[in-house]
Amino acid sequence: MYQLDLTGKRALVMGVTNQRSLAWALAQPLAAAGATIAYSYQGDRLRPTLEKLTEDQPGATLHACDVTDDAQLDALFGDLERDHGHLDFVVHALAYAPPATFAAPFVETGRDDWKLAMDVSAYSLVAVANRARRLMQGGGSMVTLTYLAAERVVPHYNMMGVAKAALEASVRYLAYDLGPQGVRVNAISAGPVRTIAARSIAGFGDMYSEAGRQSMLRRNITAEEVGGLGLSLLVPELGGGVTGETVYVDAGFHAIGMFLPQAGSDEG
Ligand code: NAD
Q1: What's the predicted TM-score (pTM) here?
Q2: 66 lines ligand 1 (CB under 6 A)
């Protein structure tokens, strides 16, 4: 059996709101294998939850950082350089689009809502990568979270789908720029998981049950499955040859051209 020892490895995990956050699911296997984790969170109201969640993680540090603010990003990476010296892994698991963009038709998207969704959900990865690379002189790896709505129309996703398309393209350009330095950048395209951000999307309940019903595995995925894929992409011993990629953990949903409920069974 392959033993993974990440003792001495340093990770930045961005986007934990609570124990249901995909960022938390991605942090779990890293912490279990011995990595030391710095967590960044959007605002002060999230800190108490993070303090509780991380109390058993040796060396975990907490840093406020709203990714729309360059000064806060600079402060975060200043802290990381001071506290940790180097960085091996970055988990970017955050996104935002104003609620109106999920509720109204895409054609009505306003300029300010477009800018804010793009800024938080796509540009922030570029801003983070540019700062993180300076702490990854010995190579490293970054993962971000995306969704099928980047490539296909998913009702209600609207502006967030467009922002995820920009995010996935950014992953490829970042992977190209950082490849010579031995830094890999990949996106995980996850099927629906019940998190705070997901529940705020109009129609999420229907999307969730349809995705489970119509996937190849005939079920929804779990946050733990996202964490497992994240670990395999982040750790060079497992995912060392993979970069610039969008990898799906969606029970096969993305690859289906037409779903027939009976197909694959004896009656098919
Ligand atoms: P979540 O609500 O737990 O996490 C979203 C995080 O984004 C929160 O921690 C929030 O504080 C952070 N955030 C928003 N604006 C920010 C800002 N300006 N600065 C810093 N942080 C900010 O929900 P989640 O579902 O775990 O979302 C994590 C990622 O996974 C997102 O990119 C989301 O689009 C993606 N994703 C989620 C699903 C799903 O079904 N849950 C599926 C595919 C992809």
Answers
A1: 0.97
A2: yes
